[in-house]
Amino acid sequence: MTISLSCNNPFQKTQKSEYTTTDPSFFIFGINHWNMCEFRINISYRFGSMKDTIKKVQRGIRNDDVQGGENQGGRPAGNVISP
């Protein structure tokens, strides 16, 4: 079980914003208030446990196309047949 507590802006309760228009054809005035102080409690609990283990894949990628020597022209190194 995990319990966590958090708090945002504990000393600022609200924030206020006022706005008005400067256009002479119409008038808008507004006030917004936001609650800034916030408290949170988070509780999480895990049910059961993961008993199965993840199996590693036995096969893998083998990069054996270049063995011993340079590979020229896309032909495999060794046993090069010239025309």
Report on the structure:
- The protein is mainly beta and 83 residues long.
- Helix content is 0%, strand content 34%.
- The protein has no helices and 4 strands.
- The strands form 2 sheets. Strands 1-4 form a two-stranded antiparallel ribbon. It has a two-stranded antiparallel ribbon with strand order 2-3.
- The N and C termini lie far apart (74 Å).
Identify the notable features of this structure and list them briefly.
single chain, 83 residues, mainly beta, two-stranded antiparallel ribbon, two-stranded antiparallel sheet, 0% helix
Quaternary: single chain
SSE class: mainly beta
- Backbone shape: elongated
Largest sheet: 2 strands, antiparallel
Number of helices: 0
Please report the total strand number as a whole number: 4
Radius of gyration (CA) equals: 35 Å
Percent of residues in β-strands = 25-35%
User: Roughly what percent helix?
Assistant: under 10%
Which parts are unreliable, with pLDDT below 50 for 5 consecutive residues or more? none
Give the H and E element order.
EEEE
Distance between the termini: 74 Å
For the biggest β-sheet, the strand order reads 1-4
Q: Residue-averaged pLDDT, rounded?
A: 78
Summed up:
This protein is mostly beta strands. It is 0% helix and 34% strand.
Write the layout of secondary structure elements.
Blueprint: E1 2-8, E2 14-20, E3 29-35, E4 38-44
